[in-house]
Amino acid sequence: MANVEVIKKFWNSFKMKFGITHDDYQAWAFGDTPEMANQLADLIVKGIKTATTSAYDLYEKDEPLPQVGEYNIILDGSSAPVAIIKTVVVEIVPFNEVTWEHAYHEGEGTRSPTGAVFTNPFSNRNMQKPVWNFITLGNVQDKRVAMSI
């Protein structure tokens, strides 16, 4: 786990910069390896990855789904905070109904409508109904607040 004090300092800097008064956030890394965490965090910081997914079927019965307005601190592969994202839309969509627009905002692959195929990131777990989270980005290091759908 990342250094809690470093994460708190990162959050407090963001709060001051954007006038946020609460301390409701979660800190986590994308992917399941440090390399993937670095790659996806880099796409977030560059403003390329502006949407993400989580597998609906993996949520426990009483576990809350992502909620509009939530803040998340994105960690890199060494568990250092690199960005803060805010959930602005949550949709539950079967995998076969994922739009090209959402696949594009995931920020991975070629991002070309003729050459890109959005593959199910949960196929190894037989997930067919992911929760699609659309996010805006706020990076403490540069006042960028990237798109929303």
Automatic annotation (TrEMBL):
InterPro entries: ASCH_domain (IPR007374), DUF984 (IPR009326), PUA-like_sf (IPR015947). It holds the Pfam family ASCH. Residues 28-141 form the ASCH domain. It comes from the Bacteria. PANTHER family: CYTOPLASMIC PROTEIN, CYTOPLASMIC PROTEIN-RELATED. This is ASCH domain-containing protein. It comes from Sporolactobacillus shoreicorticis.
